Amino acid sequence: xxxxxxxxKKAEGYIDICVGVIVFVMILVIAINIFSFITLKIxxxxxxxxxxxxxxxxxxxxxxxWGRDSDMLDEYYYYDIDYGADEYFNSxxxxxxxxxKMWVTISKHTYVKGLGVxxxxxxxxxxRSGLSEKYWx
Length: 137
Hints:
The chain is α+β, with helices and mostly antiparallel strands and 137 residues long. It has helices at residues 2-7, 11-58, 63-75; strands at 80-85, 101-112, 120-131.
């Protein structure tokens, strides 16, 4: 089939091949973007899981939490972070009483790549929650 299109002296065969190549490249670009977004989401899941684990273990958003955040920034990439709790035991030190819910949201702003001058912004975010494991007196 392709051999016949190439041997054809009319321009139709060349145009068909060019259109086919362009369609193939566009499908390849979309597949690469989907793969990069899936990889980004997996990395963000790991970051959020590690951060909420550090926060729930210490029962606050203190030095352990920010130290782990610094480690994650060194290991991965820059991301936006939002965190909080349903109820604070001591809002000055951001301590959360045993059994209270804590949450961390990680988000990353990126673009769909491979479209030339067109930039389509995309924000990927992940939220993880857990219960505080520390009893404050």
